[in-house]
Design a protein that fits this description.
The protein folds into 3 domains: 78 residues, 434 Repressor (Amino-terminal Domain) (Orthogonal Bundle); 116 residues, Orthogonal Bundle (Helicase, Ruva Protein, domain 3); 176 residues, P-loop containing nucleotide triphosphate hydrolases (Rossmann fold), CATH 3.40.50.300. 45% of the residues lie in helices and 11% in strands. The chain contains 17 helices and 9 strands. The strands form 3 sheets. It has a 5-stranded parallel beta sheet, sandwiched between helices. A two-stranded antiparallel ribbon has the order 4-5. The chain has a two-stranded antiparallel sheet with strand order 8-9. α6 packs across α16, α7 crosses α8 and α9 runs parallel beside α10.
Length: 393
């Protein structure tokens, strides 16, 4: 640590004021004060002159200016046996980053020419935790043997990845299952905000997948009977059918109710169609037991939730991602940086008089934060991502 940090504290001047005066980011100044790392892109002597000018204006004595850039041991203010408790994060301080891209300078510095958090290229690129494994298997068993499943998760939790994995797994195993995916572009839950996905649209999509050459009947009832017949013939040929609806939180309540009719299509004791709905937490609201309009659907639908990456498994997740692009995690980010990521993507809230921590450690949020931190480290010339770099993003 530079003595400069202690001088600023003695003058009661925040690091942010120094950063603003120098026209540098807070992270750059933090690296300088805490680790003595000077920005490679700036002239060191000129920067020292500007810092001394700031200190002089703040009232620093000549003696302090003389050794401001000497390194000293950081003071220890923690009693033996005590633990460090992170300060609560206010709700308005927690902001998720938009999509981040590895900059050219970052790729060169870390010798990395493929984004470890980019779209997965194959099933082997997918990190699987115990909770993800459970959801993955629940989807596969529903598609393979029948059922009605709702998969809920926040944006970036990995819902689309699991859908792609399901399609890929069935194809690789040569399972006799037809995956039917209705188009949900611009789908909304009412016709005021956009186009709603109605049961007739779903039936048309199923008919097109099961019997693409058949000419649809004119009336809705006749088309539904035609679909039932086509499904029976496909089942007799040895196929099962799985209807997968993404963005299911946008389904209007009438369509949710009509899914029960599709689920009831059968031959003997065998259900002809299994259904998997994939959506954001709003889907859980629509499938609430208190919602009398869809109680028949709720009673038949199993619900699973994609949870955030556990804090204890964050390092494992990151190590897997970087290993897929041929890099060792320790060469990219240190333990303090990993802990800072967990802290940054956690929010302390009060609910029912108790303080709880809401985790946002979803793969997409983690990836954006790590890439942004790597870009900042490259700008600062820091060899790896540290806690200070993460805090500076």
């Amino acid at each position: 640590m530079l003595k400069l940090k202690m001088i600023l504290q003695g003058l009661d001047r925040p690091q942010a004021a120094l950063a603003q005066s120098l026209r540098l980011s807070g992270a750059t100044v933090a690296q300088l004060l805490n680790h003595g790392l000077w920005p490679r892109s700036l002239d060191g002597d000129d920067l020292r002159v500007r810092i001394r000018a700031f200190l002089t204006a703040a009232g620093a004595k000549d003696a302090a200016l003389a050794d401001a850039f000497d390194e000293v041991e950081p003071p220890c203010a923690i009693a033996p046996g005590s633990t460090i408790v992170d300060a609560p994060v206010k709700e308005d301080e927690l902001m998720l980053l938009p999509k981040q891209m590895l900059q050219l300078a970052t790729r060169k510095m870390f010798g990395m020419f493929r984004d470890p958090f980019d779209e997965l290229q194959c099933a082997q690129d997918m990190w699987v935790s115990p909770s993800i494994r459970y959801v993955r298997e629940a989807m596969y068993q529903t598609a393979r043997h029948g059922g009605f499943l709702a998969v809920e998760g926040e944006s970036g939790a990995g819902k689309s990845t699991l859908r792609r994995d399901l399609v890929n797994r069935i194809a690789e195993n040569n399972d006799p299952v037809l995956i039917i995916e209705p188009y949900v572009l611009a789908s909304e839950d009412n016709d005021t905000k956009g186009k709603s996905l109605k049961s007739t649209h779903i039936a048309e999509s199923m008919m097109s997948a099961v019997s693409p050459l058949a000419k649809p009947k004119s009336s809705p009832e006749a088309r539904f009977a035609q679909l039932h017949k086509a499904l029976k013939e496909s089942h007799a040929a040895g196929y099962r059918h799985c209807l997968v609806i993404e963005e299911a939180h946008s389904l209007p309540l009438p369509t949710l109710k009509h899914l029960k009719r599709i689920l009831e299509l059968e031959v003997g004791f065998t259900k002809l169609v299994s259904i998997i709905m994939i959506g954001q937490p709003e889907l859980g609201v629509k499938l609430s037991e208190r919602n009398a309009d869809v109680r028949e659907v709720v009673q038949r639908c199993e619900r699973v939730t994609l949870v955030p990456v556990e804090t204890a498994r964050l390092g494992e997740f990151l190590a897997f991602r970087f290993d897929r692009v041929g890099k060792v995690l320790a060469d990219i980010i240190d333990e303090g940086g990993i802990a800072a990521i967990a802290t940054r993507l956690s929010q302390h809230t009060r609910h029912g008089g108790r303080e709880t921590v809401v985790s946002l450690l979803y793969p997409l949020a983690i990836g954006n934060l790590v890439v942004a931190a790597m870009n900042l480290a490259a700008q600062l010339g820091v060899p790896k991502v540290t806690a200070d770099v993460v805090k500076g993003v």
